[in-house]
Amino acid sequence: MKTEPGTLVGNEDQPLRALLLSARPAPVLPPRFKQEVWRRIERAEVAREAPSVPWLEVLVGRLLRPRFLVAGLAALVVVSGTAGALERSIAARTAARAQYLAAVAPNTLR
Amino acid sequence: MRRSFLILAGLLLASAAIVLGSFHLGARMGGGAGRTADDLEWLRLEFHLGEPELAKVRVAHEGYLPVCRSYCERIAAATAEMVQALGPGTNVPPLVDQKLAEIGALRAQCQAAMLRHFAEVSRLMPEPEGRRYLAEMQRLTLGAHEHLEHSMASPAGASHEHHGH
Questions:
Q1: Among B40, B37, B36, B35, residue whose Cα is nearest residue B55
Q2: How far is CA B74 from CA B62, B66, B116, B147, B156, in A?
Q3: For residue A86, what are the CA distances in angstroms to A79, A82, A90, B164?
Q4: With CB atoms 3.0 to 4.6 Å apart as the test, which of A88, B2, B19, B89 could cross-link to B27 if both were Cys?
Q5: Is a pLDDT exceeding 90 seen at residue A78?
Q6: ipTM of the assembly?
Q7: What does the pLDDT average to over A103-108?
Q8: Residue ranges of chain A whose CB lies within 8 Å of a chain B CB
Q9: What would the mean pLDDT of B15-34 be, rounded to a whole number?
């Protein structure tokens, strides 16, 4: 059988063509299909027109860069850890001072 | 946009958790462990004393402690006698005046001994630190009285002003 380029079957195979067309399943559309389609289109348009916050998008984009994430994490850990150690050291020194004062200058004299 | 907000909120929450965790970890790993067995630990830390200087200061400190304790006991005994002399009545017997004078004199002697001890300790420290120690101890032990007396003498302490009747 010789077919023309770009065609599945030749014009001479009309019975086969009819058979193929009849074999194509006809989908059963759900109720209110058209309304649902239009509703989705409207919703998509509304979402497209919603105001975006460009600086927020830029900020989040930058924050999510791996290099920035690693640097930020490291900075947070170092600064917070140092602050914690410093706070502990100050508290320990204050307690040591109170202990010395209690030994050499009881409250009755102060 | 909503997604960006959610990401930003998540990042902020994660950052707060990291800050808190690191702070507590740093505090746990940091030096100092509250109350120590050594009363002189503060001097070592604050005035950067080495072992030889600290040993000299320790000798002076241990020599001063019985003197301080003795004054404290005498002041406590005189105070108890004064309270007993006050009794349940509403007037102040002359014995109370005598006991108050005694307590005042004992406190003055005790304070003088304390200041002499501070001066002695300051001389055992290297020069700039010794001077700083003496100033700090005077501020800590005499400052409280000064503050109280200033507040009582200020115009705000109106209860001390005597108005003509």
A1: B40
A2: 19, 12, 19, 27, 36
A3: 10, 6, 6, 57
A4: A88
A5: yes
A6: 0.74
A7: 76
A8: 50-53, 56-57, 59-60, 63-64, 72-73, 76-89, 91-93, 95-97, 99-101, 103-106, 108-110
A9: 84
